[in-house]
Amino acid sequence: MTLILIICLLVLSIILVGVKPSEVTYMTSYCPNTTSDYTEGSKFQFNLNRLLYRLMYNNASHSVYANPSVGEIDDDKVHGLYLCRGDVAPKDCQKCIDIASERIQRECPLKKQAIIWYDQCLVRYSDIPNFASTYNVPSYYWIVYNTESFSWMNQVKGISDAMFDNLTPKATNDLKYAESFDEITPLSLSQKLYGMVQCIPDLSAEDCRACLEGARSVIPKSIPRECRVVHESCHLSYQFKNPD
């Protein structure tokens, strides 16, 4: 069964546009209840710390995505993954990974599987290999949106739908990332619409498309001015802005 968790905020701009590039904003985390725990001082914990604080942190200085593994024996092996938002600078990606790697162990203590989302990145680890490509059906979503309504929202739904129709195929390419920033003029009221979609690079084009379509399906029908949907394998956002 698909689980949907909705978080509503009065001002999303605190998250999307009010955050300086050097800052990172925590969103949420997920700790599966079905996994076994590791023990303090175990080889698994040693490998996890090495994964989070060395391999993933170092990779983030030059790449928005990596999925390293650490360990020789299956029971002690840890598989990791991080993904920074496609428009985040390398230094900010590295900072986000550093902060997320520390907090994920506080949010999910002694768990062998965990995932944490920040506005700028996600970090995930597991004792199961190839976990990045095992979630073909979107299952966990967190939506953050501005509840402020605007008079012409029903008339711009088609515009936002068209934007995602255009961006989704572009996100299935090798980069698994696409964005747009277009001016719109519904009812002679000039606005700009920013949109962004991104998938984990390991996903196939088909799975990327399925993940993004699932994310779109839970966007509120009221068409809030700003919305962010994050999933373990993809995320999307849009924002209506007044012209500068």
* CATH class identity of the largest domain: Alpha Beta
Uncertain residue segments: 1-21, 134-138
pLDDT average, as an integer? 80
Tell me what portion of residues adopts beta-strand conformation. Answer: 25-35%
Q: State the secondary-structure class.
A: alpha+beta
What is the name of the CATH architecture of the largest domain? 2-Layer Sandwich
Number of domains: 2
Strand order of the largest sheet: 1-8-11-12-10-9
CATH topology of the largest domain: Killer Toxin P4, Chain A
Distance between the termini: 43 Å
In which range does the helix fraction lie?
A: 25-40%
Structure report:
It is a single chain. The chain is α+β, with helices and mostly antiparallel strands and 244 residues long. It folds into 2 domains: 31-133, Killer Toxin P4, Chain A, CATH 3.30.430.20; 143-241, Gnk2 domain, C-X8-C-X2-C motif (Killer Toxin P4, Chain A), CATH 3.30.430. The protein contains 5 helices and 12 strands. The strands form 2 sheets. It has a 6-stranded mixed sheet with strand order 1-8-11-12-10-9, with helices on one face. Strands 2, 3, 4, 5, 6 and 7 form a 6-stranded antiparallel sheet that branches. Strand 6 and strand 7 form a beta hairpin. The radius of gyration is 18 Å and the shape is elongated. It starts with a strand and ends with a strand. The model is unreliable at 1-21 and 134-138 (pLDDT under 50).
